[in-house]
Structure formats: structure tokens, C-alpha cells
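Page 42, continued from yesterday. The earlier attempt failed because a stray header line got pasted into the input along with the sequence. Redoing it now with the clean sequence only.
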Amino acid sequence: MPILSVQKQLAHLLAQMHKLLSRVREGAPTEELRLRKSDAVEALNTVRTMIGADRTGAFCSTNQHISALIYYYKKKQPHSYESDINDLYEDDLPGVVSAVETWLEDQIDPRLLRAVRKSWDDQRYGNAVRDAFICLETVLRTTAELDGSAGLSGDKLVTAAFAPERSLVGRIPSDGFMGQLTNGEVKGLEYLVRGAFLLFRNATAHREIAYSAGEAEGVINIVNQCLRFMPAEL
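This time it went through. C-alpha cells are written below.
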């Protein structure tokens, strides 16, 4: 699931809508606005599809008000489409943003999102992967109550964090999407975290890898899966 790409697509939608409404205010040619409407609706539907929303609520009303706006603009009736502009700004677009934010809350750990956002927005995808693993290391140290000055990282950190005498295993939430983990599943989680470090973290830390956006996002999603089994921010 393209978690980070949803934010990028939302930003694209808002930019399309801002330009459309600005050009309406500037009295742009009808043909230009027709094309801008098509781009905005396409961006709207892409966001809706990406988060699995239906055609009701804010997505539906946004589509309706865009169509009404262009319809009355062609008829040169600003008094008729002024309310559509107000509805788009005050209700529809904030509603779409809220729907995306709600979806994101269920998809990505907020600690991870904060960690990778700057590098991701700058399209420095290798750095975003590094930032993701730094975030995971920090969460493991905090949850397992490990002394940061010990300098443990990567595979050694995972070994220490999942040691029986540490608190990490006991803090794995029992109300997560998989419920209470069995001993074997806890071991599987350890293997997942360890494998992610050995394969992706180590390679990215030791050499430059030209990640594409899709490749980096796939790795970051693995880190996100690991974080889903960790307690929320302590």
C-alpha cells in the first residue's frame, strides 16, 4: 500500500484545486477551466481510490461542487457558483484532508512518518530508508530499556532487545491487529526485525543504493510492520 505516496497525491490534489479556483477568480477561458476540472477530478478520484474510500461524503460533494462550478461558470453566472467555491474551501477539501488523515492514522506509525518525511519530500529515498531504521532502533532501545550509550545497533541491538530479561517482549501490545502473539509468533517477529536490519538497514548504511520511490517505500513499509508490534510512544 503506497502510504507515503498518498500524502504526495493529496498535495497534488490540493494544488490542482487551488489553481482551478484561482483561475476561476481570474476569469480564465472556459476551455482552460474544463481541462483543469478534468485534472482536479482525476486527482480526487486517485486519492479516493488509494485510501479505499467510497463515493460518498466529502469526495462526492467535492465532485458535485466542481461540476456545478464549471457549469455555472460557462453560463457566466458568478452568483450561482459562488456558493460552490465557498463549499469547496470551507467543507469539501477539509473533509477530504480529514479522510486521508484518518486513513493514515491506521496505516503508518506516527514516529516513522515524522522520521522519514523530510527526506521523502526531498526525494532522497536512500536517506528516507536510513531514517526509518534509525527510528526503529530508537523504538527498540526505548521499549527494551537499553542504554543508548552502549552503542548497540543492527543485529546486536535486536539480540539485546529480544533477550528474555528485557521488557520488550512483555510490552508487545495484546490488542494489536493480530491480538496476543504466541511464543512462536514472537520469535517470528524477532526474525522479521532481524532480517530487516541484516538485509536492508546494513546495505543502506554501508553503501549508496539508488532507491526508486517505490523501492524505498516497500522497505519503509517493512519497518512500519515491525513498529506495529511495538507499544505506542512511551
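Notes: The mean pLDDT is 92.
Reminder to self: strip header lines before submitting.
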